[in-house]
Write a structure and sequence with these properties.
The protein has six helices and 13 strands. The strands form two sheets. Strands 1, 2, 3, 4, 11, 12 and 13 form a seven-stranded mixed sheet that branches. It has a six-stranded mixed sheet with strand order 5-6-7-8-10-9, covered by helices on one side. Strand 3, helix 2 and strand 4 form a beta-alpha-beta unit.
Amino acid sequence: MMRVLFLGDVVGSPGRAAVIGQLAEIKKSEEVDFIIINGENAAGGRGITPKISIDLLRVGAAVVTTGDHVWDQRDILDYFPTEPRLLRPINFPAEAPGKGSVVLETAKGKVAVLNAMGRTFMNPPLENPLTMLEDEIKRLREEEGVKMIVVDFHAEATSEKIAMGRALDGLASLVVGTHTHVQTADETIFPGGTAYLTDAGMCGPDVSVLGREVDSVVWRFRTGLPTRFPVAKGPVRLCGVIVDIDEESGHTERIERFNRLVEE
């Protein structure tokens, strides 16, 4: 079996510090073979920088995925072409730097990771993620012989995420949602062998509103007035999912939510 750990959106310096400090121990204690991290909120809560990407890869991430905040840090534009293990959503225009999929060789076989962004309630509206993922997965299977395939679907609407998981059943090993920062409790394995979780949750401050300071967000909802949303402080909760994938079939045999509170 190939054991894969996927960690949800890393939020700001508290999330980064907790992931970087805990990842080696988690890999050992959970006997993980392959780690994927969504880093799109890792730079002050908005985007990712080259240094942060390098830090996450150095501590054990095999691939770093992103989402709608991928371009928020300007220096990431020139970095993308230099690092194939950093992904941007595959359904951005072809002219955008970087790629939306990568295939890595491991001791247990090839693993493909794909990143896509939803269109419902998301900006900017992109190409159809369903057809683009289907086409890319079929290409990877036919041309590169990949069987173990993980999809990070960065989307808002639960309906769009569930539909994506169902559509890719039998094509992907895992379809996991990101973006909402709230871990869902609907982990399952579909009939075709694809594991699914609507949202992995976040790696960010536990006492917060989606990783941001509580008072500022409550003020915004109370008054409707614009305000800043600083990243919160305090203990960090690391959220994600662990799956066991059969190397021969690419089907997932086991799925388990990962949830750990890291005290300061």
